[in-house]
Design brief:
With about 210 residues, the chain is α+β, with helices and mostly antiparallel strands. It has 2 domains: about 50 residues; about 160 residues, Sandwich (Jelly Rolls). The protein contains 2 helices and 12 strands. Strands 1, 2, 4, 5, 7, 10 and 12 form a 7-stranded antiparallel sheet that branches. A hairpin with a 2-residue loop joins β8 and β9. α1 packs antiparallel against α2. It comes from Pseudoduganella violacea. This is Ice-binding protein C-terminal domain-containing protein. Keywords: Signal.
Length: about 210
């Protein structure tokens, strides 16, 4: 009985460890844009953004100004004095399944013609997102897309595609996650299930 209890405990530990390893993995660095310090109710414009490569026209990081961020205090606008972009190379596997999620909002008091943001996955467009910003503040909406890794590295890019007039849509809480267990954790889970099955068989009366 003691040996059975020890075996069951070990199998349960293996399954718990495998479940932990199989938890969603966040691939995007600084997806909420909080790593860059901006004064309260202020904004900055520049050519750098932690974790991201910034397009030629720079980036605006806004700290709850011209609308509030969805999460934290910072969000970005991709139309500075002209349309720009941000991109990041993510560590992926060829054929791996991922969920790309982000929050988009039109800029307040502007039309959809100026607010467009295009999302590209490894250079392939995954859609253009735009809306009217009819009143004061941001109107955040979450979008989720299923994407597939192209290899050990896959590029994620957001770029402004509305009127290049210094008024653009807002972007916040960018995320790319994978819930698929790594091969090692899958083997660990199989081992735990095998031990549990063996223990159950041993416990049954002859």
């Amino acid at each position: 009985m003691k040996k059975l209890s020890v075996a069951l405990l070990g199998a349960t530990t293996l399954l718990a460890a495998a479940s932990t390893f199989a938890a969603p993995i966040q691939l995007v660095k600084n997806g909420g844009f909080e790593s860059d310090i901006v004064g309260n109710s202020n904004w900055t414009q520049g050519n750098t953004l932690s974790g991201w490569t910034v397009g030629a026209n720079g980036i605006e990081i806004r700290n709850d100004v011209a609308g509030k961020a969805f999460g934290g205090n910072n969000f970005v606008e991709l139309d500075t004095y002209g349309n720009s972009s941000i991109s990041q190379n993510l560590a992926t596997t060829a054929g791996g399944k991922y969920t790309l999620s982000f929050y988009y909002s039109p800029r307040e008091f502007t039309s959809s013609a100026t607010n467009g943001i295009e999302v590209l996955w490894n250079g392939v467009s995954k859609g253009i997102f735009s809306a009217n910003g009819g009143g004061s503040g941001n109107l955040w909406q979450q979008y989720s897309l299923n994407v597939t890794g192209f290899g050990p590295s896959t590029a994620l890019e957001f770029r402004a595609v509305g009127a290049s007039d210094s008024f653009g849509g807002g972007l916040d809480n960018v995320s790319v996650t994978s819930a698929v267990p790594e091969p090692g954790s899958m083997a660990l889970m199989a081992l735990g299930l095998g031990v549990l099955g063996f223990c159950v068989r041993r416990k049954r009366p002859a």
